[in-house]
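Anyone up for a design puzzle?
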């Protein structure tokens, strides 16, 4: 997918291997990169939950 990226945070702020792409709206072509912030991964769990690194917008949707 060709996308525009609206970056917010650097990948260095997140636990290695925790970054994922999620679909926010398939119809509108909006996805997000999410990950667990560093120092919030304990006992094989992400205690702080997943935070957004950036949003991805499909070019064909403007």
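Challenge accepted. My sequence:
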């Amino acid at each position: 997918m060709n996308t525009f990226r609206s970056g917010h945070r650097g990948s260095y702020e997140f636990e290695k291997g925790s970054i994922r792409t999620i679909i926010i709206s398939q119809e509108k072509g909006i996805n997000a990169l999410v990950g667990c912030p560093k120092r919030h991964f304990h006992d094989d769990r992400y205690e702080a939950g997943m935070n957004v690194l950036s949003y991805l917008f499909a070019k064909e949707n403007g």
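A detail worth pointing out: The CA atoms of residues 28 and 61 lie 7 Å apart.
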